[in-house]
Amino acid sequence: MTENQRHLSRMAEVSNALVQLHKAHFGRGPTHARSLLVGRDTLLCMLEDVMLPAEQKLVNQGQEEKVQTARVAVQIATKAEFMSAVEQIMQRKVRAFTSAIDPTADVLFEVFVFERDGGESG
Q: What total number of domains does the chain contain?
């Protein structure tokens, strides 16, 4: 397997792991997921079609901020699980993780920042 094939395989593995975590915590997972390494230390995962029917109803009523608030609360509660899954796949320590949703577009972004080479975080 070439280095490029290993990289693509890891990106697919990350995407699949995040879909499974979303299924476990929300009862359904996104229907589209894509992960990319941005530079050396940042992993961006874009998940589409993530919202639950109840969340979609809130968006339809103009209450996007309630969806964002609830999603942030879940992200805080499950942060360790998401970080652990990515660390196992990528074999790198995550030093920062955040999540953001655009409820109108039904797109969620998971962003992981790894410790720099040598384990330094600065």
A: 1
- pTM for the whole structure: 0.90
| Farthest CA pair distance, the chain | 50
Strand pairing class (42-48; 32-38): antiparallel
Instruction: Tell me the residue range of the domain where 23 lies.
Output: 3-115
SS3 73: helix
Residue closest to 88 by CA, chosen among 16, 2, 3, 34: 16
Which pLDDT tens digit goes with each residue over 27-72? 999 999 999 999 999 999 999 999 999 999 999 999 999 999 999 9
| Domain membership flag for residue 120 | no
Please say whether the beta carbons of 67 and 52 come within 8 A.
no
